[in-house]
Amino acid sequence: MRYNQLGRTGLTVSELCLGTMTFGSTGGRWAAMGQLDQTAADELVKIAFDAGINFFDTANVYSEGSSEERLGQAIRNLDLGRENVVIATKVLGVMGKGVNSRGLSRVHIMDQAKASLKRLQTDHIDLYQCHGWDPVTPVEEIVRALDDLVRQGHVRYIGVSNWAAWQIVKALGVSAAQHLARFESLQAYYSIAGRDLERELVPMMRSEGVGLLVWSPLAGGFLSGKFTREGGGEGRRGSFDFPPIDKDKAFDIIDVMRPIATAHGVSVAQIAIAWLLHQRVVTSVIVGARRADQLTDNVAASDIDLSEAELATLDEASKLAPEYPGWMLALQSEYRAVPGAKPSRWAD
Q1: What pLDDT does 32 receive?
Q2: Strand pairing of 3-5 and 12-14?
């Protein structure tokens, strides 16, 4: 297992992170992801930790808080030692019937941080993330509330999930101007079948030193290799067809991945994860599972070394179509090229 620096911080996290959306006991919108009991949660946490994973991601809305409870109890049951694990959780979604039991207001952030700490059975959250954008609450209020949590010692670092590039840069500007804690990471959807964030988010992250945590690296299970053009397949895609992807293109990508997987003696899913681990912008890839064998298969992807030729083949099959202003920016940047010069340290 390799480890990476989280954003511009001194915190080191494993390149694979165990996502715990499958942990929990309640129904609701997350029921399709899995409803693992404490024994099953303990098993998956142990497999991950023994493989070198020190990073664990959850959210208050997963199974209405019981995912956090399962994770916190697993860490205690396995006696992992709080100093040996990095815990990330999130705030935004509806957590009660009251009109203020949602969003990123100061009230909701403070209330939910306290509730998450209790459920996780810990005195601090290593990475506290805004689970999405709040169109009502001013960015200044959001950042100030999170900074207060950092200053109080309840939170060590802050991040966001599913924000646009302009939204993150605006928040970073507020943090810099007011000397507040800054967002160090973005948790976003990224897969070889869904490379949209490369248009705006990746350049922003490189420019501002923001780390990338990848969710749904297998595109909701579509890249598991179990789906075919003729139909069939298994997993949550059958009942929860998310995230949206161009399935015809995804099948073409899978066709390219299969011979590479065969050459390495691994699964198609492992090649999909390995491709992400070879992308320099990626800090950690979040992998989730319902069963031990699924997690073991995903973890093994960290051992795969793809050749330059294989990476080029995968890139060609999955690359984004040119889109304005990207193609114009590239065209107009050519005049700055210096023959024989080394590329910028921030370039690919």
Answers
A1: 62
A2: antiparallel
The mean pLDDT of 143-157, rounded to a whole number, is 98
The pLDDT value given to residue 343: 65
Question: CA nearest 234: which of 317, 301, 290?
Answer: 290
Q: Do you find a cis peptide bond into 325, omega within 30 degrees of 0?
A: yes
pLDDT at 340: 75
If you count DSSP H runs as helices and E runs as strands, how many of each does the chain have, helices first? 11, 10
Catalytic residue among 3, 62, 157, 189: 62
Nearest alpha-carbon partner for 2 in 80, 45, 43, 55 = 55
Amino acid identity for residue 303 in this structure: D
The domain segmentation of the chain, as residue ranges, is 3-319
How confident is residue 239, by pLDDT bands cut at 50, 70 and 90?
low
Distance from C-alpha of 271 to C-alpha of 302, rounded to nearest angstrom: 10
Is 152 in contact with 112 (CB distance < 8 Å)? no
CB 100 within 8 A of CB 108: yes
Its CATH class, for the domain covering 3-319, is alpha beta
CB atoms within 10 A of CB 102: 18
Q: What is the pLDDT of residue 238?
A: 65
Q: Per-residue pLDDT tens for 262-278?
A: 999 999 999 999 999 99
Q: How does strand 86-91 pair with strand 125-130?
A: parallel
Per the annotation, the verdict on 190 as an active-site residue is: no
Mark residue 279 as left, alpha or beta (left: phi above 0; alpha: psi -120 to 50; beta: remaining).
beta
